[in-house]
Amino acid sequence: MRRLNPKPVERVWGGSALGFGPGVGEVWLAEAPLLVKLLDPADWLSVQVHPPHAYAQRVEGKPGKYEAWYVLAPGEIVYGFARRVSQEEVRRRAEAGTLDAVLHRVRVAPGQVVYLPAGVVHALGPGTRVYEVQTPSDLTYRLYDYGRPRELHLEKALEVALLEPTPLPAFAPEPVAGGERLLQTPYFQLYRFPLRGRLRLKPPLALLLTLLEGEAWLSGEALLPPATFLLEPGEEVQLEGEGFFLGASPGGA
Ligand SMILES: O=P(O)(O)OC[C@H]1O[C@@H](O)[C@@H](O)[C@@H](O)[C@@H]1O
């Protein structure tokens, strides 16, 4: 078992709720075998899309990016388009700053899981704090950035964006030893483990375990959020305290 150190990263849209000072929009909790981050936006993130594996390998020589959010604080997100659009309309609107009119905005609540496969155009809104798990790739194509002077990748984004509305998928949690599996995809699995007194875990796959709320004890050491560990497959851990953990394991793809 390995304790991982949090890495704060400043972002133009960063808030101050992560406890690492103002402007820290992301705290990277793990980089392998999956990328796990906390995100705290004070402003809208760029309207963006990630490429699927096949496109990313062909065009960038890298794997694609699939991600999911576990919502920690309520707010709004963009999830795909509100109606069918054409590439020409998206290009015209992105250039004119009127893309908002065709984006599907949704309110999300704490505890909600949002799966974002490659191809779904998305954005996180102000105050919508999330735990994010994703394939370890940095491929983000920005369609629109609210006039901020950052690079855009509109043509590549248009090649990979799904232009039909993509309904927000709902998942029924499944019981697993110690908690529940909230999401299973070919790329990763997401778990929630409540801590009420004692919690014993022995995951079958590598597990990135993060304390999100409360206080925990591990072999006499006190842990506070966002303490994060990597457990190897079959490794056993015994925790005490009150609160909850989220866990991320690789998928089968
Ligand atoms: O391009 P910006 O707006 O900085 O957003 C970049 C961020 O987007 C989110 O949706 C996630 O994919 C983060 O892992 C990523 O760092």
TrEMBL record:
It comes from the Bacteria. InterPro entries: Carb_Metab_Reg_Kinase/Isom, RmlC-like_jellyroll, RmlC_Cupin_sf. Transmembrane segments: none annotated. One of its GO terms (molecular function) is isomerase activity. Keywords: Isomerase, Metal-binding, Zinc. PANTHER family: FRUCTOKINASE (PTHR42742:SF3), TRANSCRIPTIONAL REPRESSOR MPRA (PTHR42742). This is Mannose-6-phosphate isomerase. The lineage of its organism: Bacteria, Thermotogati, Deinococcota, Deinococci, Thermales.
